[in-house]
Amino acid sequence: MQIVLLAYLVCFCVPSIIIDILQIKYVSFYASKKPIILDSNDYKLAANYAILQRKVSIATHIFEFIMLIFWLYFGINYLDRFYEHTTFSPLAKEWCIVMSFFAISAGLNLPFSILQKRIDRVYGFHKGSATLFIKDIIKSIVLVGALGGILLGSLLWIMDNVPQWWIFGFVLFFTFIIVIQLIYPTIIAPLFNKFSPLQNANLESRINALMDKVGFKSSGVFVMDASKRDGRLNAYFGGLGRSKRVVLFDTLLEKISEDGLIAILGHELGHFKHKDILRNIIIAGAILLGMFAFMGLFTTHLCTFLGLSVSYSNIIILSILLMPALTFLVQPLSNYFSRKAEYKADSFGASCVSQKALREALIRLVNENKAFPYSHPAYIFFYYSHPPLIERLKALGVQDSIESFELDSNMDIESNLQNTLNKGTL
Ligand SMILES: [Zn+2]
Predict the structure, then answer these.
(1) Which keywords, in A-to-Z order, does the entry hold (predicted)?
(2) Ligand 1 mean position to 343 CA, how many Å?
(3) How many CA atoms lie within 13 A of 126 on its CB side?
(4) This prediction's pTM
């Protein structure tokens, strides 16, 4: 038992906490320097937010480790014993054990979700009411419970009937991910948000012209009422095949100029043009296959090694408990490819309008989302799926050093931006 806990600590828990501490120190160091990109108030606020997020992350890692000890020493055996004398069929028992594990874990993680929402509210991101939060949780439980329950039942059946179950289990989960992508924009997302067709005819025709340029077929441009929960800006192209639709957050429409919006959508279409979505699906598939191979080839022996009974439910629970450590080790690779793709998408987005339009839009996004401009290189290596803003701006034609686009902190951001742009430094 101790060896597994030690491996978890050495490979995942301790490095994650070290990276968080490095990031906290790095952000604190730059927080005391002259602000760049953000005005001085927002710069401080962004630094505090970034530091607080890392502190929550450290607490989460420690909590996850305690939970691992709890499950390995008591929890799994307790669940086994709890369902031992029920009259359910063996597969139904296994299903109940895993579902109980999910329910207990979700319940124990709830304080962290509430804490995150509270932090977001303090920093002005989270706008939703407590009623909306509770409604969201209930909807998520029903949705995840129903879909997860069906998926788990199918996996248990495969494990019970197919010798190389981990290969077929992978096929089942991979197919499930594709189906979710297909139905997400039209069936799942509308459960949580309202989507209305874009009312701006001029903008819509510009977006349509942009989509024609790269041969992107979509079922329409929609505005999502994101502001009812969160003030941050975003846009996405959801779905696959015919179900694809362009979704603009209402917050984005309010805050970004039309040119900026086209440049951002151009960036997203750049991903489509460069087949990044296909590449992401292939990478996700490869990671999923690796996880199922781990589950199928190692977890059975691991159960024996840990003194747990070898059952389908214990194989699944053990894999889920150890998955964050495996993800942590493989994510730098997928993030590396993702960051490279972002530069290419930026360059396409800029070509749709101008470099200046995309730069302005990116700066506006960072301002509204209060993203701190500096991050420790180790933090970027492990967690950044997008390059840091400063690097993206440099790739978009900023030749000077970072200092050259320091902003006058006494001015509001709009004039700051205009002023800096007029000086020709951006
Ligand atoms: Zn992108």
Answers:
(1) Hydrolase, Membrane, Metal-binding, Metalloprotease, Protease, Transmembrane, Transmembrane helix, Zinc
(2) 8
(3) 16
(4) 0.80
What is the whole-number distance in angstroms between the Cα of residue 10 and the centre of ligand 1?
33
Assign 247 to helix, strand or coil: strand
> Tell me: the pLDDT tens digits for 16-30?
999 999 999 999 999
Burial bucket for residue 249 (CB in 10 Å: 0-12, 13-18, 19+): buried
Parse the chain into domains and list their residue ranges.
119-193+273-400
DSSP per residue over 50-72, as a string? HHHHHHHHHHHHHHHHHHHHHII
Cβ-contact 245, 218 below 8 angstroms: yes
For the annotated binding site for Zn(2+), the residues are 267, 271, 342
Backbone Cα Rg of the chain: 24
**Residues recognised as catalytic:** 268, 346
Report the separation in Å between the CA atom of 271 and the middle of ligand 1, taken as the mean of its atom positions.
7
Q: Give the count of beta carbons closer than 10 Å to the beta carbon of residue 422.
A: 10
Residue 38 near residue 370, CB atoms below 8 Å: yes
Distance separating alpha carbons of residues 426 and 422, to the nearest angstrom: 8
Q: Using one digit for the tens of pLDDT, what is the confidence trace for 345-387?
A: 999 999 999 988 999 888 888 887 788 989 999 999 999 999 9
